[in-house]
Write a structure and sequence with these properties.
By secondary structure, the protein is an all-alpha fold. It is built from 4 helices and no strands. α2 packs antiparallel against α3. The two termini are 45 Å apart.
Amino acid sequence: EESRPSVSDRVWDLLGSTFLWKSVLWLCLWGFFVEIEFGTVFFIISVLFAVYRTLGDNKRKHGELSAYSVFNEGFRAIDGTLTGEQFDREIRAGPAAVKSNKRD
């Protein structure tokens, strides 16, 4: 039989999380900035900061391809990518003219 954590254990885990405390601090600061009529500025700067902090945290493993071919060695595209050449062939000759690039 699996033991499940009790509700009080889950509540204490939530209260101990840094995300919760950061959220409470952010809400208090936002309330303060709303009072001094800079709430929108604080919100926009917070969103920009969050975007900045989350970009670049996830590094690709060696050999893993990016969804954006410009970041891959030799500009190699991942399977299923619609290339400009493929799009041109489809417009000129129809979708049936495009050869499948499946690898066995």
